[in-house]
Amino acid sequence: MYRNALVTTAILTTLFSFHANPTVAADPSVAAHLTTVIQEAQRRHQLFAHQVTDYTCTLVKRERIHGQLLNYEHLEVKLRHRQVENGQVVVPFSVYVKFLAPAELQGREVIYV
Description:
The chain is α+β, with helices and mostly antiparallel strands.
């Protein structure tokens, strides 16, 4: 898993460096390398789409409402993708959110199934 994270980081770093310096991307050897990187990114996306059915993360968000920048909010998010077997939905798409901070929102929960 650690190796996959390193490769993914390398792919993203390469893509961002090409974006930052478009004259480098005009070099044919660099363009060939970029093609390889893009193909690897597409392969990893396919693996992710087929193998990862659910995940948990901590979301940190900050909103600007009517021009006023609000405080950070920290949320625990659990997401489960829909799973179908033999044409039947066996696991529905669902989302669970629990507010971790700020104190006035802490403990609030939201669920969608």
